[in-house]
Design a protein that fits this description.
The chain is an alpha+beta fold. It has a single domain, classed as Class II aldolase/adducin N-terminal domain (L-fuculose-1-phosphate Aldolase, 3-Layer(aba) Sandwich). It has eight helices and seven strands. The protein has a seven-stranded mixed β-sheet with strand order 3-2-1-4-7-6-5, sandwiched between helices.
Length: 253
């Protein structure tokens, strides 16, 4: 038995599956209308310490991204942006800081989806618990109100990572949103419900009528009840990948 060879093979298989899942997330972001031209970025850690990570190639449309084309970077590599295949500057700034500083952030999705970004442009970008989807984020979302311009500088990435802290979701004022999770499936599901919650908020605000906000006790109870549905995150993502396998299988190449 060659234990070392078996370990290498397992690691290669794990990275291959991670590439496929992350590529699926890009294609699904297009289907849900979350993407923005050739901007925004997703990443996933492949090393135990989280510092080696996959991220999308510079300025590629989400609808074309394939598993084999994802870049493999090292968050501690200071020469990354000097190479001809360097990622987008803001992708490097944000995601290298996240994977360098936040161990629980194995996967990070950064987007400017329409409804979440609309909320991010309000003086109060918080999500109020007015239904069960919005209540999912009650006391469980960081809010960053210190926008410092397009995050192309390392200092901005470090600031964003510090804002995320122990949270899994951050509303980035005047910017967009970022979610982090242990797996692509959980990150995707969290982004899905975040944008749905933001849509509900924007539609409710648009009526001009007062919001019917849950009591703190009911909001906390509802948020906690979401934990019982943790398995649904994986089922949701698996179902969406089945659709991709049937209609857009090139993501896994």
């Amino acid at each position: 038995m060659n234990i070392a060879a078996d370990i290498v093979t397992d690691q290669q298989n794990d990275e291959r599956q991670l590439r496929i899942d992350l590529a699926a997330a890009f294609r699904l972001a297009v289907r849900f209308g979350w993407h923005e031209a050739v901007a925004n970025h997703f990443s996933a850690a492949v090393s135990p310490d989280g510092k080696r990570f996959l991220v999308n190639p510079r300025w590629r449309h989400f609808s074309t991204i394939k598993a084999s084309e994802l870049l493999l970077l090292d968050a501690d590599d200071t020469e990354t942006m000097n190479r001809p295949d360097a990622p987008d500057p803001s992708a490097w700034s944000i995601h290298s800081a996240i994977h360098r500083n936040i161990p629980h952030a194995r996967v990070a999705l950064h987007l400017h989806p329409p409804y979440s970004t609309a909320l991010a442009g309000l003086k109060d970008p918080s999500i109020k618990p007015i239904d069960q989807n919005t209540a999912r984020f009650y006391n469980r979302m960081a809010i960053d109100l210190s926008f410092g311009g397009i995050a192309a500088e390392g200092s901005e990435g470090e600031r964003i990572a510090a804002t995320i802290g122990n949270h899994s979701t951050v509303m980035m004022g005047n910017h967009g949103v970022t979610v982090v999770a242990p797996t692509v499936a959980e990150a995707f599901d969290n982004m899905y419900y975040l944008e749905r919650a933001a849509q509900t908020m924007v539609l409710a605000y648009s009526t001009g009528q007062p919001l019917s906000v849950m009591s703190d006790d009911i909001a906390e109870q509802t948020a906690a009840e979401w934990d019982a549905y943790k398995g649904a995150s994986f089922a949701h993502f698996d179902e969406m990948k089945r659709i991709l396998d049937r209609e857009d299988p090139g993501y896994a190449d």
